[in-house]
## 1
Amino acid sequence: MSSRGPGLFSDFGMKASDVLTKDYSTEQKFSLSSESDAGVAIASSLAKKGGFSAGVVAAQYKYKKSTVDVKVDTESSIATSITVTDILPSMKTIATCRFPDYNSGKIGVQYFHEHASFTAAVDLNKSPNVDISATIGTPFIAFGTEASYKVDSRSFTTYNAGVSLTKPNYGASVILADKGDAVKATYFHQWDQEKRGVAVAEIARKFSTNVSILTVGTSYAIDPHTLVKAKLNNHGNLDTLVQHELAPKSFLILSGSFDTLAMDKHPRFGLALSLKP
């Protein structure tokens, strides 16, 4: 697979999004995973939010250029996916399905080139959606678009467009979404490589409602095993997170959510423990 091209449209703003969203949670979650030398990985997780609990058991098998994933949850739903790389040069094929919903099947392809990438996916049912995306450019600057077409109504349900700039220590992106009704701009800056210090700003505006949300966030490693993160938006919502590596690939994550404009409200806290023996 080529890694020198502009990447996928879904990658636009990904680094900034990870800082602002990844691992933040107000749930209590426990997960345990293991992997064998034969290419088999098994993971189980249990999450509790409020008075509800949900569990997932997942298995993954890798063989040469193929990967098979199976997930079973407590609602008796089974999600499967098969990924095959390089059937043709620089191409990845992905097939997914969720049981017992037999109409949820989907097959897609991803093609990577030195100056472009392309994806296409189609539902395997009588009234399918066709999802496509394309980017052109370089690993440093790329222009892209994506759309979803409903075959039975012969109409586009989604179309977005954007531009992304990526450098080793900073990056920016602007995406016009929701058929032109919303715009989101992000900026990512790594100000301390040794401490993994990162600062992020994101502004999202919806024109039909005249609502804008500005979010700033940061991530910083206190020591080689402890990472702290925080984000704050213009509505006064503050989220914090502390992640500590107990052992290689095993983490304890404590997170909290606060409304700084209504301090009489009780804050919400989350706890996640991920173990990989």
## 2
Amino acid sequence: MATRTVCQVLQRRFASAAAAVRPPAAEVRSQRNAIFSREHDRQRALYPRIEKIEVSMQGPGLDGTLLIMNKGMSTPLSCARHLTEHHVKSSVLALVDGEPWPLHQPLTHSCSLTLLTFKDSDPRLVNQAYWRSCAALLGQVLESAFKDDFTVELLNTPEVPVTSGAFCCDVVLDPQLDSWTPSEESLRSLTRGAQQLIHQDLVWEPLEVAPSVALEVFSHSRCKQEEVEEKAAQNARGKVMLYRCGDHVLLSGDPLVARTGLCSQYEVTALHSLGQGPFGLHRRAQGLSLPLQLQAHHTVWRKLRQRAEKLVEVSRPKEAAPPSQPDSTSDQPVTTPV
């Protein structure tokens, strides 16, 4: 245990030193992709021979359906392909033995499997995963929007409910941009970037890894190093989940939907200033989206968009206090008109 702690401390120090001298964005993406691919191949090699598992399908018209799949190779999407084209196209997320499971994550044991869609009677899990995925897409756009001219540091993505009116992605831009206020055209440019990724119908490819691998992936991001440790501490197995979308690798504590093509209407609505933070000037990018199976009339969309322009405030975790004292209130970020 002591040896592992020392190793983690050394990894943090090495990563922090590496973060101080950040190479061009394209080089960072290439490095992250290479580490992701290396770890993906290593995990695949853990199953040198094909072993069979039983997957009991659950859901309307599927109860009693038993599929024989390949351990460590077959995914919930693989199971959907054994059913109908409708299941392949409409499935967004899965439940494996009742637990949320990414559609592209391999199955490692015999289990029960439920395929979830946007039109289920209780779509809460799907909606949360969709909102989270839209925020991940926004982060991907922001990280590539400024090319190599300016640095972009993605912060922890706030987990906000769909009822908040907008998904969020917190970011620190290059200090040279501290006085920059994005115009409507700038927001439209970010929207076009997201729509290009949606049109490509890219897969969000999951990969559960040890913290040491994630620290190596994010060796040039001070914020992500801290987030890796937080998410590893929250995970029962001490692991963290990475996702790859195109050439972008990200960290997520909870499942994302299967692919970018599930998004339909999508718009970046605002970029608010939250004031100075530990990594510089913190900003909150916000957006609005509806999935492919759900559409809104343009008048309804306009009203939703107006709401999504307003700053979404996220409360800090409350600290323990004596019963006689009131709970701490949520933080009040400083906003700058956009």
